[in-house]
């Protein structure tokens, strides 16, 4: 109601000012115009022949003109007031409805209900405000969902090593398990927990853009060759072939952080080794496209179904519904890889076909 009163007063002020301006203009310009018009109608000679009567007639006509105009102004004032009141009512009603909906929705969001949305009607500023509010609520809902999933995932990841630690401790206390064997098992589980904590710390820093980068020109083939030499013994131990394919003509240096590139390659190669059975093959290749140097890691593993391909870069996402830790990994390696590649100005993607394998590629810009 207060908004209606303010709008009504503002519209009435405009009406009064318009009436005063119009009256002033009429008072200034109308008499002179009227005199000339009357003289033109009666003729100058006729006016002179009439003498004093002509002057009295002119004044009487001018008074009649002013009286008519003033009466018209006074008559139009109530009509203008009604029109101003109607416009103020409809405008204030629309603004008030939007403000009430926005206040209600904001209160629900403040209480933790991020599913609330405002109707977007029209293309005016109020509709744009509702659209931006909906985008804000959607972003908050996504953040809340991610937070809940993160808490659940962390709890799930910690449950297994904690249960194992409790079991080993009880077995050692009951004398069922030798102390040295229990100590080794406990150390192994503690290392797994420490790796999880380190991965979580890296994910949080990557998503916050807080990972330090020392970008400098570096040879792309040297980065891939170093990763090949680092992981070759692990592939030989599992019986998986590891091939290195470099272009005949060396590529220009890339602008990157060698340590972070090595971390990205390590995550991709570990995934390839983990999912490629013995007798399979993994290829490390280097190429060039419009975005810069293209690094690819291809395997002959089981592949990734199409419905899961867009989720592989999510935190803790695993294709294994049982979320088994038997093969290691915390499910954040690809998340870290994506964040690091994008922080260096590149992009990362995958192509996969079930039963034929998967290829992960990422690009780095040339120096």
What keywords describe this structure?
two-stranded antiparallel ribbon, 63% helix, five-stranded mixed β-sheet, alpha+beta, single chain, elongated, 367 residues, 8 helices, 7 strands
Fold topology:
Elements: H1 2-42, H2 44-50, H3 52-110, H4 125-173, H5 179-207, E1 216-218, H6 220-238, E2 241-245, E3 254-256, H7 258-275, E4 281-289, E5 292-299, H8 333-343, E6 348-353, E7 357-364
Parallel strand pairs: 2-4
Antiparallel strand pairs: 1-3, 4-5, 5-7, 6-7
Helix pairs in contact: 1-3, 2-3, 3-4, 4-5, 5-8, 6-7, 7-8
Structural account:
By secondary structure, the chain is an alpha+beta fold. It is built from 8 helices and 7 strands; from the N terminus they run H-H-H-H-H-E-H-E-E-H-E-E-H-E-E. It has a 5-stranded mixed sheet with strand order 2-4-5-7-6. The protein has a two-stranded antiparallel ribbon with strand order 1-3. A hairpin with a 3-residue loop joins strand 6 and strand 7. Helix 4 runs antiparallel to helix 5 and helix 7 (258-275) runs antiparallel to helix 8 (333-343). 17% of the residues are buried.
The helix count comes to 8
Q: Could you state the order of secondary-structure elements as H and E?
A: HHHHHEHEEHEEHEE
Summarize the amount of helix as a percent range: 55-70%
The percent range for strand residues is 5-15%
